[in-house]
Amino acid sequence: MTGLEQDAAGVTATLESPGVPPRVVRARFVVGCDGAHSATRRLAGIDFAGRSFPQRFLLADVEADGLERGRVHVFLARTGPMFLFPLGTPASWRLIVTLPRSAPRGPVTLPVVQAAVASHTREHIVVHHPAWLTEFTVSSRLAEAFRRGRVFLAGDAAHIHSPAGAQGMNTGIQDAVNLGWKLALVCHGEAVPALLRSHERERMPVARAVLAMTDRAFRVATVQIPVQGPGSADRQSPDSRRLGTPVRAHRNAA
Description:
Distance between the termini: 47 Å
Order of helices and strands: EEEEHEEEEHEEEEHHEHE
Strand content: 35-45%
Largest sheet: 8 strands, mixed
Number of helices: 5
Structural class: alpha+beta
Helix content: 25-40%
């Protein structure tokens, strides 16, 4: 989307894609569900205040030798945490690991992943046959408003946060459901437009609470402290018991 204009009756949006002629769409309302870099939010003039954390992370689906299967493995190292989740497909393990500050920037390769794994544990874990590899950083940001005239925001366009707590998809879906039924009633003439004011009133406090919770969880998970004591210990939280996947917390991290 490269243009967005509003009037009393609706919204005119200009859509452009590479290799496709521009087209103009006229609608009564526009909902921006276009992610953290939302063009809808930018064109509506809605600020997206917050911060980015300095840590860098690797995310990979890989095969790994040297791990007991059927468990979530958590490594708590001085450089930050490393998690290996049993996945099944497209690879046996989902790996999330903090990159050392000294790690070079550039394409993510299997040797880079192996070096990051080795920096988090003295155990001999060998990763191989990656299904995919990527690097990511974490930001915590909240839109100053979830509505500007006839333009609404939902999901990552309205709020982004650390994956700690795994609330991103839930929060975004709840945004869409909350707004969707209200728009449907208004568009069918079964509710007055004033009903739409409740979207921001109801969803903004939820987004603020999720950002506060995930920020705290992220800071705790990534604090760099010495990890003492040899060996490893099983930890099984109520959540892991419900899921049937025990957690092994490794304390002999690097």
